[in-house]
Amino acid sequence: GIDATATTLALTLHYLSLNKNVQDEARRDVLSGSTKYLRACIKETLRLSPTAGANSRYLAEDSNIGGYHVPAGVLVSAFGSVTSINDNYFNNPRSYNPNRWIRDLEGNSKIHPFASLPFGYGPRMCPGHKLAMQEMTLFLSEILKHYTLEECEDHLPPVGMIYRMNRVPDRQINIKFLKNI
């Protein structure tokens, strides 16, 4: 969980540095004593760049998946990195838009509940998901209170993801931290 949390923090800082309006809104949210929008930023990072590779389960019974017969006992994996950028589930799926996670905004209650599962689901869900969200929210809140983030000139977006034990950025992420006055 530590590596996944650190990667998500780095990627959220990256997305905030590239999206000034989003960063400003997240800062206003934090300074007002709320974290609703900031948490939406984290969820959007986890949607666009999930650190978990896949949710895998052994089939309990024979199933038909995509027109193929798959017998019971076969390990089936669902890759969140595929469903989370599918335009059947999200409008403009490759854009960074934390507003899609604000439930009271029109249309957002229609997001399929299984379209983005960065922590898994059910009894095998990551046991540390609440702690990870709290840690990330606290860390990012403190950063936004004290710093403005800018992308570095030598940084070339977009950052891709590669598979290790978890998914990680394909290169170093460089960000400028400018002290707020």
From TrEMBL:
Domain of life, source organism: Eukaryota
Compartments where found: Endoplasmic reticulum membrane; Microsome membrane
One GO CC annotation: endoplasmic reticulum membrane
Membrane topology: Peripheral membrane protein
UniProt xrefs under Gene3D superfamilies: Cytochrome P450
Residues binding heme: C126
UniProt GO molecular function: heme binding; iron ion binding; monooxygenase activity; oxidoreductase activity, acting on paired donors, with incorporation or reduction of molecular oxygen
Keywords in alphabetical order: Heme, Iron, Metal-binding, Monooxygenase, Oxidoreductase
Cofactors named for this entry: heme
A family per Pfam: p450
InterPro entries given in the database record: CYP11_CYP27_families, Cyt_P450, Cyt_P450_CS, Cyt_P450_E_grp-IV, Cyt_P450_sf
Similarity remark: Belongs to the cytochrome P450 family.
Function: May be involved in the metabolism of insect hormones and in the breakdown of synthetic insecticides.
Protein name, UniProt field: Cytochrome P450
Organism of provenance: Clastoptera arizonana
